[in-house]
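--- STAGE predict ---
source: upstream dedup step, 1 unique chain passed
mode: sequence only
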Amino acid sequence: MRGRYIRMFISWLRIFIKTAAFRSYRSLLSVCLRLIRHYEYIEEEGFRERPGLAFSSQPVANQPEPTTHVSLAVPLREAPIRTQGHQPNVQMPIPELHEGTNMIDSADNTRSPRNSAVPLIPICMPESSISVVIAMPLPSTAPVQTFDVILTPIVPEPQVRRYDRHVRIDRDYQPFVVKKGPLDCSEELAEVEGWEPLTHPEGALFFYQPYKRVFTDADIRDPETAVKINKAVEMAYEEVRKADILLDSSVELALELIGKESCGYYFADHKRRVIFWFEDYQNIELMNDVRGVKRKSHVKYALDSQYWRHIELFPNKRVLPEDIVVKLKEIVMHAHADNITSETCLAPFAPNEVASMLDLVDFLKDSTNKEREHSVWIAARFMRLFCNAKFVNFCGQPGARLDVDQSLYGEYDTRSKKIIRVMNVILFGSPDVQSKAIRTIWVDETIVHPRWKDFTDRLTTEWNGYTIFSTVMLAVDISFLAVPAVATQTPAVVLAYLSSLCAMGSLVVSLILAGQVNDSRRGSAAAASFMVKISRSMFGLESLALMLSLPFALLIWGSVSWLHSTDW
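--- STAGE serialize ---
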């Protein structure tokens, strides 16, 4: 009896041990699984935070860091997706024939995005749940009209006439009624016919087509203008396809209305940082009055300058690449060093201006790889000016200009005429001095801007001094004529009057020239136009030298006449 109880106790104990062991095993296993999952989560989060981490036997320090290329191109927006029926929207475009299907790519139904003038819009077909990329134009609410648009190749500078539009504003004063509640401008800032209105940092309004990367200053809100611009976009991309030009994915198109039937265009390539056209282009606007351009490596600087002008005109929605800021800083630093160590620096800016630019470029580092249109505009403006200077100075060519006063064409105005030599003697050699100074600021029919400013400042300072001396001389002559004893001496009176006339002439001429110079300093283009007209006159630049010598020479003649009048 006792043995039976013992066996029962042993069997119960065995069952209890098994049950306890099994439950403990499950609890232990559950704890282990939780630990493993927590460890995997930590590893996954750490891997996400460090994209350069790879599962490799090599050390992490030896792994190359991935680099992403930042472009100035505006991001391309994907076209809206249209569906047919109630098929699910599965975005799996099939540009070519896939194995295992009976679908055939037709040239009439699919077009390469590189050669297509319209965006590719994925549409879900009813026969399958897989969407197929086919070419469809964007929807347009503009009225159907027919326009004959003529595409004309242009360059951004100076054929994009943004600063010459002079749109008239209504002069009637009528207070604007602000509706109650917070002001909502979303309706005015909404897209129009697929075009997005943008505001330039300077305040100009322009429009951007985000599906085809097109910019224009034309007011798309006008239905007739919208039809013309949309037609021009289609024609431009169609002509590119016909010309067998392969467009990079970052290429942008810019349009400028010219009259009622013509539309200017150009393409901007952000990979090569140049502009181009679908036809051969030959125009003086691109050459910027530079003669002797024979090589592609030379004209590339002109295309670079026009590319930066494009960025300058349309800086919105762009990311400023870091390499651009680094390159710009190197250029400015070189110009600053050249200004310090050389008197014939080729930089198109004065030393104080280059120093200010260097400080400004340092602030651009905080804007790299970010979408900041003001910083993009600053970098584009500086790059355009420096690229244009390289083009004008034949950078990289056998006959490159290395000094600012070096003439590449060897055509100094050396017309020596007897009247010029005689006038040089009469005016006490001042025309010769002025002529040499003029040749340092006017080289190959181009104004040297830093020297031009110094030259005009020096002239203004001299003329201000001449006006003071002339006023004193005029007062002395009048006082001398007021002496009763002088009135009876005719030669003394004549010389005194001659001195007064010379002093008056020096005063008047100084005031007139000072006003003209200050007016011409408002724009370098006006100054260059004036210099071209003077250089093509009968006496060339010598006529300008004679004119600038008059205040000094008349003052000297007035002093000489007064001295002789006191001898009588």
